[in-house]
Design goal:
It contains six helices and no strands. By secondary structure, it is an all-alpha fold. It folds into two domains: about 5-95, no CATH class; about 95-194.
């Protein structure tokens, strides 16, 4: 008898990984406050704690078979909220331009609309494309690197070009992945009509 290699996904709520994700979500407002008030070193500490808990919740979920449907929603939600908090805080302080914030938010709105269209045709959320993961990772690196230059101005001459390279590349890949999701949605709507 063959053993299934795909992990079992449960409907449990109170698991250690989910609690870690709830803590990460609770840290988002503190993170935003610290950025807006220009306490960048403390904001970076919060981000490091969040990143460590993100890593731990994934390891614990896989190792102890605690993968849940809720966790699959909370984990990417926390990632995106940290990105949005960093974008809002840095744009409010004129560290980054508002157009970068709007470019990223517009793509997220497009994905919500695509998700609603897919649900209308009886399909679940679109599968995450690896390009979307790379784009999110690029943004997840860009914003802390830019914050590092704000926290420690003596290293800004190094961190600013690197942070901006990640930010622009991430925004470009974010939209490239978005167009792949549009193509997937079009394919789904055609299949459901056929």
């Amino acid at each position: 008898m063959a053993v299934s290699s795909s992990p079992e996904i449960s409907n449990r709520v109170w698991t250690v990984p989910n609690v870690l994700s709830f803590i990460r979500l609770a840290l988002v407002p503190l993170f935003l406050y610290l950025i807006i008030s220009a306490q960048d070193a403390l904001a970076l500490v919060v981000l490091i704690v969040s990143s460590l808990s993100d890593y731990l919740d994934g390891v614990i979920a896989r190792r102890f078979n605690q993968i849940t449907r809720l966790g699959q929603l909370l984990d990417p939600a926390a990632d995106r909220l940290f990105i949005f908090a960093a974008l809002i805080g840095l744009a409010a302080r004129n560290v980054i331009p508002w157009w970068l914030f709007f470019v990223i938010v517009a793509r997220e709105i497009m994905l919500v609309v695509l998700g609603l269209i897919s649900a209308n045709y009886g399909f679940g959320p679109l599968p995450v494309h690896h390009l979307g993961k790379v784009a999110t990772a690029a943004l997840f690196y860009a914003l802390p690197i830019l914050m590092l230059g704000q926290a420690f101005p003596t290293v800004a001459w190094v961190t600013d070009p690197i942070g901006w390279a990640f930010a622009l590349w991430g925004a470009f890949l974010y939209w490239w992945a978005g167009f792949i999701y549009v193509a997937q949605s079009v394919r789904i709507s055609r299949l459901s009509r056929g």
